[in-house]
Amino acid sequence: MYDQIAPTYVSTRRPHPRIAAAIKAAVGDADSIVNVGAGTGAYERVGKSMIAVDLESGVWEKRFGHLRSLDALDAGYRLLATR
User: For the chain, what are the domain ranges?
Assistant: First the structure.
């Protein structure tokens, strides 16, 4: 899915105010914060989301259904804060 939105991602992404505030509260007065896991999450699309299409068609289940049996999952998100 990321390959489909990558060409416009940089110009269209926006921070979510509530999440940005929670991160700022957690890391304090950091000079910069980098989301090292960028590109691995879910992205909203105009109209019907790609994840909804994949869920309805069974594509998600075929690709990722095995994840349901895991006790834990490291999805790769990391925040790096520098001072």
Answer: 2-69
